[in-house]
TrEMBL record:
Domain NAD(P)-binding: 7-190
PANTHER family: FLAVIN REDUCTASE-RELATED (PTHR15020), UPF0659 PROTEIN YMR090W (PTHR15020:SF50)
Native organism taxonomy: Bacteria, Bacillati, Actinomycetota, Actinomycetes, Micrococcales
Natural source organism: Dermacoccus nishinomiyaensis
Protein name: NAD-dependent dehydratase
Gene3D superfamilies: NAD(P)-binding Rossmann-like Domain
CDD domains noted in UniProt: SDR_a5 (cd05243)
InterPro entries in alphabetical order: NAD(P)-bd_dom, NAD(P)-bd_dom_sf
Amino acid sequence: MRIAIAGGHGQIARLLGQRLSGEGHDVVGLIRTPEQADDLRAAGMEPTVISLEDASVDDVAEVINGCDAVVFAAGGGPESGRARKWSVDLMGAVLLADAAEQAGVRRYVMVSSIGSDAPENVDAGVFQVYLYAKGGADADLRTRDLDWTIVRPGMLTDDAPTGQVTINPDQQRQPITRGDVAHTLAQVLTSGHAIRETFVVVNGATPVDEAVASL
C-alpha cells in the first residue's frame, strides 16, 4: 500500500510510518517545514512539504494522488491557540477529505480524541475548542462517501508499547502508549476491518490484531 500521513512529524505519525514502512508499505509524510524531513526519512517515510493551512484542495490532491489511504494525524499542537485548533484540527481534516475525494483515495483514517463527541462549553478554554474542532472534523468525515475510520485514543503516554488494547472501554479516560496507538492505526489500515467505525482505544488485555478484527 501507499499511505499518506498528514502531520507526518508528530510522534504517533512517525511511529506509524516506521511500522508501516517496516512492513513493506510506501509511506508519504506531509510536513510543514523542510527541517522536519530528516526525521521522517529516519522513520522510513518519504517527506513532502505542504501546509494544510495554506494549500488548496488541488495542491493536496496532487500530493496524495496514487495513494491507497490517507491518515489525518495533524494538529495545531499543545502550545497553539484557538485559531490553529480551527485551521488545523478542523479545517485541515476537512481539506484532506476534500482532496481524498478529488484524488479518488477512498480510505481515510482519522486520529481523533476522547471527549470530542460532547465537548463542554467551547468558551471555557483552548482545550474545549480543540475537542470541538476534533468533533467537527469527525462529524464531517461521517458524511463522506469514503471508507473512513475514526480512532479516538485514550490518555497518551510514552511508555513502552504492550501490543494489547481494549476497544470502547466503559471508562474512556485510561492510558494508551503512543506506540500502541500507532500499532492500532496500522492494523486498521492493513486489515480491512473497522470501515465506517468510530472507536475509543486504550491499553488493555486483547492483542491489537484481535481487537481490531472484532470491529
